[in-house]
Amino acid sequence: MGNMFCVPPATENMQTAFVFAKPHANTPAVRKLIAEKFAEVGVTILSEGDLDGPTIDSKMYIDQHYYAIASKATLLQPSELNVPADKFSAQFGEEWSAVVSSGRVLNAKDACTKLGIDTSELNTMWVAAQGAGKVVKLGGGFYCGLLEPEGKPPLYTLNAFFMTMRSKFTAPSASLHYYVVGFEPAKLSWADFRGQVLGPTDPAKAPPSSLRGMLFARWESLGLEAAPNTSDNGIHASASPFEGLAERMNWLSAAPAADPFGQRLLAAGIPEATVKEWSVDPQVPLPGGGKGSLFDQLEDMDLEACLAKATELAACGKA
Length: 319
Known about the structure:
Elements: E1 15-21, H1 28-41, E2 44-52, H2 53-59, H3 61-65, H4 67-75, H5 85-92, H6 96-101, E3 105-107, H7 108-115, H8 119-131, E4 135-139, E5 142-147, E6 155-158, H9 162-170, E7 175-183, H10 190-198, H11 211-218, E8 235-237, H12 241-252, H13 260-267, H14 272-278, E9 283-285, E10 291-293, H15 294-298, H16 303-318
Parallel strand pairs: 3-6
Antiparallel strand pairs: 1-7, 1-8, 2-7, 4-5, 5-6, 9-10
Protein backbone atom coordinates (compact mmCIF):
# COMPACT_ATOMS: atom_id res chain seq x y z
CA MET A 1 0.00 0.00 0.00
CA GLY A 2 2.94 2.33 0.44
CA ASN A 3 3.44 4.78 3.27
CA MET A 4 0.71 4.78 5.87
CA PHE A 5 -0.70 8.05 7.19
CA CYS A 6 0.76 9.49 10.33
CA VAL A 7 -0.10 12.77 12.03
CA PRO A 8 1.72 15.37 9.93
CA PRO A 9 4.11 17.75 11.65
CA ALA A 10 1.79 20.68 11.04
CA THR A 11 0.75 23.64 13.11
CA GLU A 12 -2.93 23.86 13.93
CA ASN A 13 -3.20 26.69 11.42
CA MET A 14 -1.76 24.71 8.51
CA GLN A 15 -4.18 23.76 5.75
CA THR A 16 -3.83 20.06 4.99
CA ALA A 17 -4.98 18.58 1.67
CA PHE A 18 -4.97 15.16 0.06
CA VAL A 19 -3.64 15.01 -3.50
CA PHE A 20 -3.00 12.16 -5.91
CA ALA A 21 -1.63 11.61 -9.38
CA LYS A 22 -4.36 9.67 -11.16
CA PRO A 23 -3.40 6.27 -12.65
CA HIS A 24 -3.21 7.56 -16.23
CA ALA A 25 -0.73 10.26 -15.12
CA ASN A 26 1.24 8.38 -12.48
CA THR A 27 4.64 8.53 -14.16
CA PRO A 28 8.07 9.40 -12.70
CA ALA A 29 8.14 12.63 -14.72
CA VAL A 30 4.72 13.72 -13.40
CA ARG A 31 5.66 12.92 -9.81
CA LYS A 32 8.83 14.99 -10.23
CA LEU A 33 6.80 17.87 -11.69
CA ILE A 34 4.34 17.77 -8.78
CA ALA A 35 7.15 17.86 -6.20
CA GLU A 36 8.85 20.76 -7.98
CA LYS A 37 5.63 22.78 -8.28
CA PHE A 38 4.76 22.28 -4.62
CA ALA A 39 8.26 23.36 -3.56
CA GLU A 40 7.99 26.45 -5.79
CA VAL A 41 4.75 27.68 -4.19
CA GLY A 42 5.47 26.72 -0.58
CA VAL A 43 3.32 23.60 -0.38
CA THR A 44 5.01 21.07 1.93
CA ILE A 45 4.71 17.34 1.23
CA LEU A 46 4.05 15.86 4.67
CA SER A 47 3.77 12.25 3.56
CA GLU A 48 3.32 10.30 0.34
CA GLY A 49 2.89 6.78 -0.92
CA ASP A 50 1.42 4.43 -3.52
CA LEU A 51 -1.79 2.46 -3.86
CA ASP A 52 -2.22 -0.23 -6.53
CA GLY A 53 -5.33 -1.12 -8.48
CA PRO A 54 -6.12 -4.44 -6.73
CA THR A 55 -5.93 -2.70 -3.33
CA ILE A 56 -8.13 0.18 -4.51
CA ASP A 57 -10.58 -2.43 -5.82
CA SER A 58 -10.70 -4.69 -2.76
CA LYS A 59 -10.84 -1.82 -0.25
CA MET A 60 -13.34 0.06 -2.45
CA TYR A 61 -11.42 3.30 -1.91
CA ILE A 62 -12.55 4.82 -5.21
CA ASP A 63 -16.17 3.89 -4.48
CA GLN A 64 -16.03 5.77 -1.19
CA HIS A 65 -14.21 8.68 -2.87
CA TYR A 66 -17.03 9.10 -5.40
CA TYR A 67 -19.67 8.04 -2.88
CA ALA A 68 -22.61 10.03 -4.26
CA ILE A 69 -22.26 8.22 -7.61
CA ALA A 70 -20.78 4.93 -6.45
CA SER A 71 -23.33 4.31 -3.72
CA LYS A 72 -25.86 3.66 -6.49
CA ALA A 73 -23.41 1.75 -8.72
CA THR A 74 -21.53 -0.52 -6.33
CA LEU A 75 -22.12 0.03 -2.62
CA LEU A 76 -25.89 -0.17 -2.09
CA GLN A 77 -28.69 -2.38 -3.37
CA PRO A 78 -31.64 -0.85 -5.28
CA SER A 79 -33.96 -1.62 -2.37
CA GLU A 80 -31.78 0.53 -0.07
CA LEU A 81 -32.04 3.65 -2.24
CA ASN A 82 -34.48 6.53 -2.03
CA VAL A 83 -35.90 6.46 -5.55
CA PRO A 84 -38.54 8.93 -6.81
CA ALA A 85 -40.96 6.27 -8.00
CA ASP A 86 -42.99 8.78 -10.03
CA LYS A 87 -39.97 9.66 -12.21
CA PHE A 88 -39.21 5.99 -12.80
CA SER A 89 -42.79 5.06 -13.74
CA ALA A 90 -43.17 8.15 -15.94
CA GLN A 91 -40.11 7.08 -17.94
CA PHE A 92 -40.62 3.32 -18.11
CA GLY A 93 -44.33 2.71 -17.48
CA GLU A 94 -43.63 0.33 -14.59
CA GLU A 95 -43.80 0.64 -10.84
CA TRP A 96 -40.43 0.84 -9.09
CA SER A 97 -41.59 -1.46 -6.27
CA ALA A 98 -42.60 -4.18 -8.73
CA VAL A 99 -39.28 -3.99 -10.57
CA VAL A 100 -37.33 -4.26 -7.30
CA SER A 101 -39.39 -7.16 -5.95
CA SER A 102 -38.97 -9.10 -9.20
CA GLY A 103 -35.18 -8.62 -9.21
CA ARG A 104 -35.17 -6.79 -12.55
CA VAL A 105 -33.04 -3.87 -11.35
CA LEU A 106 -29.42 -4.13 -10.19
CA ASN A 107 -26.59 -1.82 -9.37
CA ALA A 108 -23.87 -1.61 -12.03
CA LYS A 109 -21.45 -3.97 -10.33
CA ASP A 110 -24.06 -6.70 -9.88
CA ALA A 111 -25.27 -6.18 -13.46
CA CYS A 112 -21.79 -7.01 -14.76
CA THR A 113 -21.82 -10.21 -12.72
CA LYS A 114 -25.34 -11.24 -13.73
CA LEU A 115 -24.75 -10.58 -17.42
CA GLY A 116 -21.23 -12.03 -17.42
CA ILE A 117 -19.75 -8.92 -19.03
CA ASP A 118 -16.90 -6.52 -18.34
CA THR A 119 -17.11 -2.78 -17.73
CA SER A 120 -16.48 -1.95 -21.39
CA GLU A 121 -19.41 -4.08 -22.55
CA LEU A 122 -21.59 -2.59 -19.82
CA ASN A 123 -20.70 0.91 -20.97
CA THR A 124 -21.55 0.01 -24.57
CA MET A 125 -25.02 -1.11 -23.45
CA TRP A 126 -25.43 2.04 -21.36
CA VAL A 127 -24.56 4.30 -24.31
CA ALA A 128 -27.05 2.36 -26.46
CA ALA A 129 -29.74 2.87 -23.80
CA GLN A 130 -29.02 6.60 -23.76
CA GLY A 131 -29.31 6.74 -27.53
CA ALA A 132 -32.64 4.94 -27.37
CA GLY A 133 -34.02 7.33 -24.73
CA LYS A 134 -34.10 4.60 -22.09
CA VAL A 135 -32.15 6.36 -19.35
CA VAL A 136 -33.78 8.56 -16.70
CA LYS A 137 -32.20 10.90 -14.18
CA LEU A 138 -33.54 10.12 -10.73
CA GLY A 139 -31.48 12.67 -8.81
CA GLY A 140 -28.06 14.32 -8.61
CA GLY A 141 -25.54 11.83 -9.98
CA PHE A 142 -28.24 9.15 -10.01
CA TYR A 143 -29.42 7.50 -13.24
CA CYS A 144 -31.32 4.36 -14.22
CA GLY A 145 -31.10 2.81 -17.66
CA LEU A 146 -32.88 -0.10 -19.30
CA LEU A 147 -30.16 -2.29 -20.76
CA GLU A 148 -31.10 -4.72 -23.52
CA PRO A 149 -28.41 -7.44 -23.76
CA GLU A 150 -28.65 -9.64 -26.82
CA GLY A 151 -30.32 -12.97 -26.07
CA LYS A 152 -31.18 -12.01 -22.48
CA PRO A 153 -34.09 -10.26 -20.76
CA PRO A 154 -33.86 -6.45 -20.39
CA LEU A 155 -32.34 -5.31 -17.11
CA TYR A 156 -32.71 -1.99 -15.31
CA THR A 157 -29.26 -0.87 -14.17
CA LEU A 158 -28.17 1.98 -11.92
CA ASN A 159 -25.24 4.31 -12.72
CA ALA A 160 -23.58 1.93 -15.17
CA PHE A 161 -21.35 4.77 -16.42
CA PHE A 162 -19.40 4.68 -13.14
CA MET A 163 -17.85 1.29 -13.84
CA THR A 164 -15.69 2.59 -16.69
CA MET A 165 -14.39 5.39 -14.45
CA ARG A 166 -13.82 2.90 -11.66
CA SER A 167 -11.87 0.48 -13.84
CA LYS A 168 -9.24 3.16 -14.53
CA PHE A 169 -8.35 3.03 -10.84
CA THR A 170 -8.85 -0.70 -10.16
CA ALA A 171 -7.19 -2.39 -13.17
CA PRO A 172 -4.41 -4.84 -12.17
CA SER A 173 -1.80 -2.57 -13.75
CA ALA A 174 -3.19 0.68 -12.28
CA SER A 175 -1.68 2.63 -9.41
CA LEU A 176 -1.86 6.11 -7.98
CA HIS A 177 0.66 8.15 -6.02
CA TYR A 178 -0.77 10.17 -3.13
CA TYR A 179 0.47 13.13 -1.14
CA VAL A 180 -0.63 14.66 2.15
CA VAL A 181 0.38 18.30 1.79
CA GLY A 182 0.29 21.37 4.00
CA PHE A 183 0.36 25.10 3.34
CA GLU A 184 -0.18 28.28 5.32
CA PRO A 185 -3.42 30.17 4.54
CA ALA A 186 -1.64 33.52 4.94
CA LYS A 187 0.63 32.57 2.04
CA LEU A 188 -1.71 30.51 -0.15
CA SER A 189 -5.51 30.43 -0.08
CA TRP A 190 -7.39 27.21 -0.71
CA ALA A 191 -9.02 28.75 -3.79
CA ASP A 192 -5.60 29.57 -5.26
CA PHE A 193 -4.23 26.16 -4.30
CA ARG A 194 -6.94 24.58 -6.45
CA GLY A 195 -7.27 27.22 -9.18
CA GLN A 196 -3.67 28.33 -9.66
CA VAL A 197 -1.48 25.51 -8.34
CA LEU A 198 -3.61 22.56 -9.52
CA GLY A 199 -5.68 24.30 -12.20
CA PRO A 200 -9.37 23.98 -13.20
CA THR A 201 -11.04 20.62 -13.83
CA ASP A 202 -10.79 21.14 -17.59
CA PRO A 203 -7.02 21.14 -18.23
CA ALA A 204 -7.49 22.92 -21.56
CA LYS A 205 -8.64 25.96 -19.56
CA ALA A 206 -5.97 25.70 -16.87
CA PRO A 207 -3.30 28.41 -16.43
CA PRO A 208 -0.12 27.36 -18.25
CA SER A 209 1.82 27.50 -14.98
CA SER A 210 -0.62 25.21 -13.11
CA LEU A 211 -0.01 21.49 -12.81
CA ARG A 212 -2.99 20.55 -14.98
CA GLY A 213 -1.97 23.20 -17.50
CA MET A 214 1.55 21.82 -17.68
CA LEU A 215 0.29 18.24 -18.01
CA PHE A 216 -1.98 19.34 -20.86
CA ALA A 217 0.84 21.10 -22.71
CA ARG A 218 3.56 18.52 -22.05
CA TRP A 219 1.69 15.23 -21.80
CA GLU A 220 3.84 13.36 -24.30
CA SER A 221 7.18 14.26 -22.70
CA LEU A 222 5.71 13.47 -19.28
CA GLY A 223 4.95 9.90 -20.36
CA LEU A 224 1.14 10.06 -20.67
CA GLU A 225 -0.53 7.95 -23.35
CA ALA A 226 -3.02 10.66 -24.33
CA ALA A 227 -3.75 14.32 -23.76
CA PRO A 228 -5.56 14.99 -20.46
CA ASN A 229 -9.25 15.88 -20.53
CA THR A 230 -11.90 16.87 -18.01
CA SER A 231 -12.24 13.41 -16.46
CA ASP A 232 -8.64 12.26 -16.97
CA ASN A 233 -7.06 15.53 -15.88
CA GLY A 234 -4.01 14.07 -14.22
CA ILE A 235 -4.30 15.14 -10.61
CA HIS A 236 -6.91 15.23 -7.86
CA ALA A 237 -6.83 17.58 -4.87
CA SER A 238 -9.21 18.12 -1.96
CA ALA A 239 -11.70 20.96 -2.46
CA SER A 240 -11.65 22.16 1.18
CA PRO A 241 -10.02 21.44 4.54
CA PHE A 242 -12.97 19.21 5.38
CA GLU A 243 -12.69 17.24 2.14
CA GLY A 244 -9.01 16.83 2.87
CA LEU A 245 -9.92 15.21 6.18
CA ALA A 246 -12.64 13.05 4.58
CA GLU A 247 -10.19 11.83 1.95
CA ARG A 248 -7.51 11.01 4.49
CA MET A 249 -10.14 9.09 6.46
CA ASN A 250 -11.05 7.10 3.35
CA TRP A 251 -7.74 6.50 1.58
CA LEU A 252 -5.44 6.37 4.61
CA SER A 253 -7.74 5.23 7.44
CA ALA A 254 -7.01 8.44 9.37
CA ALA A 255 -9.02 8.86 12.58
CA PRO A 256 -10.48 12.35 13.14
CA ALA A 257 -9.00 12.46 16.63
CA ALA A 258 -5.51 11.86 15.18
CA ASP A 259 -5.81 14.41 12.36
CA PRO A 260 -5.05 18.13 12.82
CA PHE A 261 -8.28 19.37 11.23
CA GLY A 262 -10.27 16.52 12.76
CA GLN A 263 -9.03 17.61 16.18
CA ARG A 264 -10.21 21.17 15.50
CA LEU A 265 -13.70 19.93 14.54
CA LEU A 266 -13.98 17.76 17.66
CA ALA A 267 -12.74 20.62 19.85
CA ALA A 268 -15.48 22.83 18.34
CA GLY A 269 -18.06 20.37 19.66
CA ILE A 270 -18.84 18.51 16.45
CA PRO A 271 -19.25 14.81 17.38
CA GLU A 272 -17.00 12.25 15.72
CA ALA A 273 -20.12 10.44 14.48
CA THR A 274 -21.14 13.61 12.62
CA VAL A 275 -17.67 13.99 11.10
CA LYS A 276 -17.85 10.40 9.82
CA GLU A 277 -21.38 10.91 8.49
CA TRP A 278 -20.29 14.09 6.72
CA SER A 279 -17.34 12.33 5.06
CA VAL A 280 -19.62 10.98 2.31
CA ASP A 281 -21.09 14.40 1.44
CA PRO A 282 -24.68 14.06 2.68
CA GLN A 283 -27.42 16.61 2.17
CA VAL A 284 -27.47 18.72 5.35
CA PRO A 285 -29.86 21.34 6.76
CA LEU A 286 -28.77 24.86 5.77
CA PRO A 287 -28.95 28.05 7.86
CA GLY A 288 -31.36 29.69 5.41
CA GLY A 289 -33.62 26.65 5.20
CA GLY A 290 -33.68 23.65 2.92
CA LYS A 291 -30.85 21.20 2.41
CA GLY A 292 -27.67 21.12 0.37
CA SER A 293 -24.45 19.25 -0.23
CA LEU A 294 -22.10 19.43 2.76
CA PHE A 295 -19.05 19.54 0.48
CA ASP A 296 -20.55 22.35 -1.63
CA GLN A 297 -21.08 24.47 1.49
CA LEU A 298 -17.39 24.25 2.41
CA GLU A 299 -15.74 24.34 -1.03
CA ASP A 300 -12.65 26.55 -1.40
CA MET A 301 -12.91 27.86 2.17
CA ASP A 302 -9.73 28.45 4.13
CA LEU A 303 -9.17 26.73 7.44
CA GLU A 304 -10.84 29.10 9.92
CA ALA A 305 -13.80 29.91 7.65
CA CYS A 306 -14.32 26.19 6.98
CA LEU A 307 -14.23 25.43 10.70
CA ALA A 308 -16.74 28.22 11.44
CA LYS A 309 -19.09 27.10 8.66
CA ALA A 310 -18.88 23.46 9.73
CA THR A 311 -19.78 24.49 13.28
CA GLU A 312 -22.75 26.50 11.97
CA LEU A 313 -23.96 23.55 9.88
CA ALA A 314 -23.65 21.18 12.82
CA ALA A 315 -25.85 23.54 14.86
CA CYS A 316 -28.45 23.55 12.04
CA GLY A 317 -28.48 19.77 12.15
CA LYS A 318 -29.37 19.86 15.85
CA ALA A 319 -32.14 22.45 15.45
